[in-house]
Amino acid sequence: MAKINDNYLKLPGSYxxxxxxxKVAAYSAANPDKEVxxxxxxxxxxxxxxxxxxxxxxxxxxxxxxxxxxGYGPEQGYDFLREKIVEKDYQARGIxxxxxxxxxxxxAKSDCGNIGDIFSVxxxxxxxxxxxxVYVDTNAMAGRAGDFINEHWxxxxxxxxxxxxxxxxxxxxxxxxxxxxxxxxxxTGVSATRAQLKPWVDYAKENGAVILYDSAxxxxxxxxxxxxxxxxxxxxxxxxxxxxxxxxxxGFTGTRCAYTVVPHExxxxxxxxxxxxxxxxxxxxxxxxxxxxxxxxAVYSDEGYKQTRDAIAYYLENAKIIREALTExxxxxxxxxxxxxxxxxxxxxxxxxxxxxxxLEEANVVTTPGAGFGPSGxxxxxxxxxxxxxxxxxxxxxxxxxx
Length: 403
Ligand code: MLT
What we know:
The protein is an alpha/beta fold and 403 residues long. The protein has twelve helices and 17 strands. 37% of the residues lie in helices and 15% in strands. α3 packs parallel to α9 (290-298) and α4 (108-114) packs parallel to α5 (133-142). The longest helix has 27 residues, at 302-328. The N and C termini lie far apart (57 Å).
């Protein structure tokens, strides 16, 4: 008889954002007269930039001609996009990355999950707590996380990020093999400076560990001491894989385009991980559509860059509005300065799902309960700055009124 991958049976409930979407749908169905403002999942609201749309239209027209038609593209991404990424995201910051170290994909979420394919199931995995659930759930699916007991996976190494340590993970006190780091952080919105990242690169080098660095929110960085890439840290190319995304940078959440950097210098047992990831992608992935990659390349044009940065500034202004309003309402508030996420402590030690319910039912605002990101997220909620400015202001007025 065929057997299932019973690691799936160990997963608790449904994926965090699916659970929230179900709760919100049920509330809206029962209260059709209420206008619900969504500040839960980090989905953008601003339309795609005009330069992006123009490039897309042009690519669509090309696809309708014999000369301009594109069938299967390179699994790693078209050179025109990989070269732009190298030039604008790396060389412009003094980082030496080659085009064949860039792998264009349909999302950082997929890549963060799929990357596990090239690692042994015996590896010890370290995650921040709270954490973006994809890192945990995909390792659980692969059988690397052990069993889920008392809100903890038995084989994962948790690095608590709490108010006491400024939401900064501390270096593991036991040997770990794979370390997921995300800065600017999802969910806390806290960012790490170069000086704070350096010890992680040193740890990885000393212990033969690999850092899986999620840099999906780098476009929101305003502080010059905060690196946009882990490769700004000396030696990181030997120990780190970096994930980037056009989702939040350029509003591609529904358009789907991202990329992962696997440097040639990164080797385990003398084997280049670049070659393994290339083999994995060629076998399981057929590339991002030409039209979408043309749209992504337009983000690097002068107009595209300006237009997308205007959108980032707009969201950062929302983040400021949220920070100020929640502080005024008496909550302790973190993040939101170099990130689109605001991490707020619930009032009077309220449980985060209870506070989520209160905000949904009394203020009609959707947030994300901190407990959904891990045990240390209990007692917090996360809000996103990706709503419209009007709705952000409206939501904050409603929250202030009920607190
Ligand atoms: C989030 O809300 O944490 C993100 O939008 C989820 C994602 O990017 O997949």
